[in-house]
Write a structure and sequence with these properties.
Layout: H1 20-31, E1 45-48, H2 63-74, E2 77-81, E3 84-92, H3 93-99, H4 103-106, H5 110-121, E4 124-128, H6 131-134, E5 141-145, E6 147-153, E7 156-161, E8 166-168, E9 171-173, H7 175-181, E10 188-191, H8 192-195, H9 200-214, E11 219-223, H10 224-231, H11 241-259, E12 263-271, E13 274-283, H12 293-308, H13 314-321, H14 323-326, H15 329-347, H16 352-385, H17 398-413, H18 419-429, H19 435-448, H20 454-466, H21 472-483, H22 488-497, H23 515-537
Antiparallel strand pairs: 1-10, 2-3, 3-7, 4-5, 6-7, 8-9, 11-13, 12-13
Helix pairs in contact: 2-5, 9-11, 10-11, 12-13, 12-15, 17-19, 18-20, 19-20
Length: 538
């Protein structure tokens, strides 16, 4: 059994049957289609398989790349042609701008587009059998690419999902296509507008909390090693709990509590005085998972039936009518059960009026069925008229290679530089054809003016951008025009005119004596004073 088969398919999301009457009601619910959640592009609601958790992917991605991956899942469509089934997702740059508040996407930065699409498009998931958890030496595992190809064309993103067949444990499977096609009773559901406001650590933890919530849990326990694995925390500082806590755990929980729909706290687990793990707790006071499309359809159907039966429960009828605006997935399910029970009570009144109403209901159902069939035929005809997607040539890696080369050049200049400053500098300098020379010139200005931080270089590059500097020649002319050049001969002349006045008499004098030199001078002073005291005593 593979990991993506762990979720069992059942006809109802309700796990507990309280009595025989409720069993009858649930049987009626099951006569209709399954109450599965479905993604909604307009609302930004994504329904995600547990197998596509970010922790299951081979490559850790940035928060923006996580959103790009989620958009591919949100727009995923499984179709058929003469060659068989295939799955793809197409969306535009404007869809990304809705969720990503990043100027680099607004400005259409080539480096960002290429880097992000390459990271997302080459990611994979790991399939493994049950023995990998209990007996790894005899277990089986294989990696499968999520996408077969990816492309960008004039603001349009296109991802083709991997539909290749593989042999695993003696069976022929199409893992990615199987995951996309399978409808899970308790998938992970979140709103991308909320998800986009979370940082990477918060996104990863948020998914784990949603998964546990679907399994009726309100607590997650992680050892320190599991916590490091969850956040992808590496390095010496992450070997201790405080490093993981301050860098990942606390910022993630704070972000979730501020932006998402749950309240989260954690408690350290101690052995003696050493912290070896954490318990993470949460409440669902703010959770508002919307009703499923099937729940909405069933509620509207019950509203029509009860109205024809002259039902007098105004509150129940109002809730059924306004289910999409006022109910959640969980309250909607209870509402539908109550409505079915209420309808059965009315139907027990065996009279001619009820029988006539029942005939009217059946007639309306037949009309609705015919209307639905006509709508489906119209949709099918429109889909047949849509142009087929033409394969776009694969992207070259020139821009990525250029950025990597510039990164090495930058690190040779400055051994210690933060990731944020590195990204800002590379984004600003990559736009130039003679980027290497421009970076070298910026560094020379930094050295000549005794620059103290990377902010100085960023300021230089931004000033070039604002003033439409196109190349090294423009940059040199801009610096000369706005800041001039230092005349070493005039400096020598002026120094001669100063005479023998000490440097400290200059109003602009800055004491550059080092602490070590100051200490030596102070020691010499004390020795001289001691000698003077000895001569006075004599």
């Amino acid at each position: 059994m593979f990991t993506f088969y762990f979720t069992l398919r059942c006809k109802s999301g309700i796990m507990f049957l309280l009595n025989q009457e409720r069993l009858v009601i649930m049987n009626e619910l099951n006569q209709s289609d399954d109450f599965y959640l479905s993604s909604n592009i307009e609302k930004g609601q994504i329904v995600k398989s547990k197998n596509f958790l970010f922790t299951n992917l081979s490559k850790r991605m940035t928060s923006t790349q996580n959103i790009l991956f989620s958009l591919a899942l949100l727009h995923a469509e499984v179709k058929k042609n003469e060659y068989g089934e295939f799955a793809s997702a197409t969306f535009r740059k404007e869809d990304i701008k809705r969720f990503v508040k990043d100027l680099k996407y607004s400005e259409g930065r080539k480096s960002r587009i290429l880097a992000d699409i390459e990271k997302v498009g080459t990611n994979s998931i790991l399939l493994y059998d049950e023995k990998m958890m209990t007996d790894p030496e005899n277990g089986k595992a294989t990696g499968v690419l999520v996408f077969a190809s990816y492309s960008y064309n004039c603001g349009e993103y296109h991802f083709s999902f991997n539909t290749s067949k593989i042999i695993f444990d003696g069976k022929m499977i199409t893992p990615i296509l199987d995951i996309l096609k399978r409808e899970e009773v308790n998938p992970i559901v979140y709103n991308l507008d909320i998800f986009a406001n979370l940082n990477v650590s918060a996104q990863v933890l948020y998914e784990q909390i949603l998964l546990a919530t679907n399994n009726e849990k309100r607590c997650l326990t992680y050892s320190l090693d599991q916590l490091r694995l969850l956040f992808g925390a590496t390095g010496k500082t992450m070997e201790r709990f405080n490093g993981v806590k301050n860098t990942h755990l606390v910022p993630a929980i704070t972000k979730i509590n501020n932006e998402a729909d749950i309240d989260v706290i954690f408690k350290p687990i101690k052995q003696s005085k050493k912290i070896v793990g954490v318990d993470i707790y949460w409440t669902l006071n703010k959770v508002k998972i919307p009703p499923t499309d099937k729940q909405i359809s069933k509620a509207h159907e019950l509203f029509s039936e009860l109205s024809l039966l002259n039902a007098d429960d105004v509150e129940l009828l109002t809730r059924l009518k306004e289910i999409e605006q006022k109910e959640t997935k969980f309250t909607a399910q209870k509402l539908i059960e109550d409505a079915i029970n209420y309808k059965r009570q009315i139907e027990r009144e065996d009279n001619e009026e009820v029988q006539a109403v029942q005939k009217t209901i059946e007639h309306k159902r037949e009309e609705e069925t015919k209307r639905a069939e006509l709508i489906e035929e119209e949709k099918a005809a429109k889909r047949a008229e849509l142009p087929k997607f033409e394969t776009i040539p694969p992207l070259d890696a020139e821009a990525i290679q250029k950025r990597n080369k510039l990164e090495k050049q930058l690190m040779s200049y400055f051994k210690r530089i933060s990731d944020v400053n590195k990204m800002n500098i590379l984004d600003l300098v990559c736009v130039y054809e003679d980027a290497e020379e421009m970076l070298q010139f910026a560094r020379q200005i930094y050295k000549d003016n005794n620059g103290q931080s990377m902010g100085y270089i960023i300021k230089i590059l931004k000033s070039w951008k604002r003033n439409n500097v196109q190349n090294l020649t423009d940059a040199k002319q801009f610096q000369k025009t706005n800041f001039g050049t230092k005349d070493k001969s005039s400096n020598k002349t002026s120094s001669k005119k100063k005479g023998n006045d000490p440097k400290w008499s200059n109003p602009d004098y800055v004491n550059e004596t080092t602490d070590e030199t100051k200490a030596e001078l102070e020691a010499e002073k004390q020795r001289l004073l001691a000698r003077l005291d000895n001569s006075n005593e004599k």
